[in-house]
């Protein structure tokens, strides 16, 4: 703006030093819409995962307009179904498992994209028909292996033989569900087999924990704020507790699978170690797939290896016996459908880990997971060291009854689920003439701070696979590093003198032996 002042030279108004922020609306999820045409081929289309997670996630992506205009879903399984029968089955699944049931119109528009193809996974001759059904190509292709892991390699090999996996073509991707192997040797075998036919950037190993909003928030919280990250190291942190506690058991349908797996393979190898990676990793140079995964791998490689002779001391395994969960009677694991009545499979694992790197040297990380525990809760609690001198008395009151207690440490809790959010525990002066401290809590709850619902993990991950973004998928060296750490535990458990299997009553917080793990560090589990 120019202002004429008398006869003098026009005077130029200086620009304001503080500029108002642009008033453009914040970008919404539609900027993540996939645009290139895509064919999504799901192997294992009649299985539990497809019904509970994949089909509802694809339907919701479609409903929100995030799938490309030209996208098709080809569902593949062994049993013959007519197109109508298969679509009706999927409609039931989506009604049962999607947070908003589909309207007839919405379903109609989705169902035209959905087709069924019957094929025996290990019958190589059947894949020419699949190739013909898929047509000429030209679109991106996502092959999703939601099958028993025994079929992973036969399917990949047969797709390769049928010319459906052009090596090195990043538009052709294979999504592999866990488990990635049963131990180090089988994981390496699988990796070698896959690498012979596919480039690493064509392989998307899915771990649905990495699609959870609150898991991703660990990175945003740590690296998007300045105040806490400076405290995340051995100088200030006393220990870290990672808990993945479930109240469910085998639900009448999972016993057969679970009995061949156990908690270590089912949750520790993947979800729990991913949480560890995110809370312990160094900041990546940029927020990009390679850099983020490099940092997570470094954490796994820094885990202090366990010798077989240490397993009994550092790792506790348990199995539930009959009890009551949330006031309902729960049978013993060995009485669950599909479980061997003499099974020694662990339904609970707790362990103490040390990360031998500059940041975390000497800080114990305690990790536990289990079925049929007292409460469903997944959280990471970072417990800080106490101040060097206790100047005040701490008092803890429940109602009007107060007790003098020990000074309470500061704890930062990432609540992954439920009650998604973050809490900070600290001490405040109790009102009154006395100088007494009382533990208090500062809370952030997602559902209070934001009006938008948290997206489903599978929705995000499926969309990423369709868009070719591998940031949230696990790389082969990451899988290998996790198995390298866990392999001595599996070996000790299956060896001639295995450490004991501790029993715990369903509905409790696990075997008391797990408490001893923390005792040496003067800590106790946060059972809440
Ligand atoms: C799966 C395990 O990967 O994760 C299940 O196979 C477990 O046993 C589940 O129950 C937990 O996932 P979430 O999302 O319910 O915490």
Description:
The chain contains 15 helices and 21 strands. It is of the alpha/beta class and 528 residues long. The chain is globular. The relative contact order is 0.13. Residues 1-8 have low confidence and may be disordered. The structure holds 6-O-phosphono-beta-D-glucopyranose. 6-O-phosphono-beta-D-glucopyranose binds next to helix 9. Residues 246, 266-267, 378 line the site of 6-O-phosphono-beta-D-glucopyranose.
What is shown here, in short?
This protein has 528 residues and is α/β, with parallel strands linked by helices.
Keywords, separated by commas or semicolons:
528 residues; disordered N terminus; 23% strand; 11-stranded mixed β-sheet; alpha/beta
Question: Layout of helices and strands, plus pairs?
Answer:
Blueprint: E1 2-3, E2 11-12, E3 38-43, H1 48-63, E4 71-77, H2 83-97, H3 104-111, E5 114-118, H4 127-134, E6 140-145, H5 152-161, E7 172-176, H6 184-197, E8 203-205, H7 213-224, E9 237-245, H8 255-259, H9 263-280, H10 289-302, H11 311-314, E10 315-321, E11 323-325, E12 328-330, E13 348-354, E14 364-370, E15 377-384, E16 393-398, E17 401-405, E18 411-417, E19 421-429, E20 436-445, H12 446-449, H13 457-467, H14 476-494, E21 501-505, H15 513-519
Helix pairs in contact: 1-2, 1-13, 5-6, 6-14, 9-10, 9-14, 10-14
């Amino acid at each position: 703006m120019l202002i004429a002042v008398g006869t003098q030279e026009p005077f130029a108004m200086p620009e304001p030093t503080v500029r108002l922020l642009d008033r453009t609306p914040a970008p919404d999820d539609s900027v993540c819409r996939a645009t290139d045409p895509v064919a999504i081929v799901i192997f294992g289309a009649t299985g539990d995962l497809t019904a509970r997670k994949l089909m509802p996630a694809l339907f919701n992506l479609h409903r929100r307009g995030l799938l490309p205009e030209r996208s098709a879903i080809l569902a593949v399984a062994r049993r013959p179904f007519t197109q109508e029968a298969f679509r009706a089955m999927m409609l039931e699944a989506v009604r049962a498992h999607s947070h908003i049931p589909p309207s007839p119109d919405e379903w109609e528009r989705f169902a035209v994209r959905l087709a069924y193809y019957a094929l025996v996974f290990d019958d190589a001759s059947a894949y020419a028909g699949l190739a013909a059904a898929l047509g000429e190509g030209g679109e991106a292709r996502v092959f999703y292996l939601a099958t028993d892991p025994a079929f992973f390699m036969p399917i990949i090999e047969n797709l390769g033989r049928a010319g459906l996996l052009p090596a090195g073509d990043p538009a052709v991707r294979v999504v592999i569900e866990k488990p990635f192997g049963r131990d180090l040797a089988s994981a390496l075998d699988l990796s070698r087999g896959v690498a012979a036919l596919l480039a690493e950037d064509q392989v998307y190993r899915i771990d649905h924990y990495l699609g959870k909003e609150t898991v991703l928030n660990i990175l945003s919280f740590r690296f998007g704020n300045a105040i806490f990250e400076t405290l995340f190291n051995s100088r200030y942190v006393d220990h870290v507790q990672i808990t993945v506690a479930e109240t469910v058991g085998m639900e009448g349908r999972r016993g057969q699978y679970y009995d061949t797996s156990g908690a270590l393979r089912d949750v520790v190898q993947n979800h729990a170690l991913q949480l560890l990676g995110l809370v312990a990793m160094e900041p990546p140079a940029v927020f990009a797939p390679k850099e983020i995964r490099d940092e997570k791998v470094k954490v796994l490689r820094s885990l202090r290896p366990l010798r077989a002779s240490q397993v009994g001391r550092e790792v506790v395994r348990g199995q539930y016996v009959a009890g009551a969960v949330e006031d309902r009677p729960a049978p013993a694991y060995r009485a669950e459908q599909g479980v061997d009545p003499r099974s020694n499979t662990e339904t609970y694992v707790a362990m103490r880990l040390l990360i031998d790197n500059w940041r975390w040297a000497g800080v114990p990380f305690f990790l536990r997971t289990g079925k049929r525990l007292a409460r469903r809760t997944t959280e990471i609690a970072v417990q800080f060291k106490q101040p060097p001198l206790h100047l005040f008395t701490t008092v803890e009151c429940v109602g009007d009854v107060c007790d003098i207690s020990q000074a309470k440490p500061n704890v930062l809790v990432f609540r992954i689920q439920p009650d998604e959010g973050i809490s900070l525990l600290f001490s405040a002066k109790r009102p009154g003439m006395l100088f007494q401290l009382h533990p208090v809590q500062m809370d952030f709850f997602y559902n209070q701070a934001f009006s938008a619902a948290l997206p489903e993990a599978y929705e995000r991950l499926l969309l990423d696979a369709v868009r070719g973004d591998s940031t949230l998928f696990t790389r082969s060296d990451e899988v290998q590093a996790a198995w390298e750490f866990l392999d001595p535990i599996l070996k000790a458990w299956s060896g001639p003198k295995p450490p004991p299997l501790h029993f715990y009553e369903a509905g409790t917080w696990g075997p008391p032996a797990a408490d001893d793990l923390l005792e040496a560090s003067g800590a106790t589990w946060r059972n809440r």
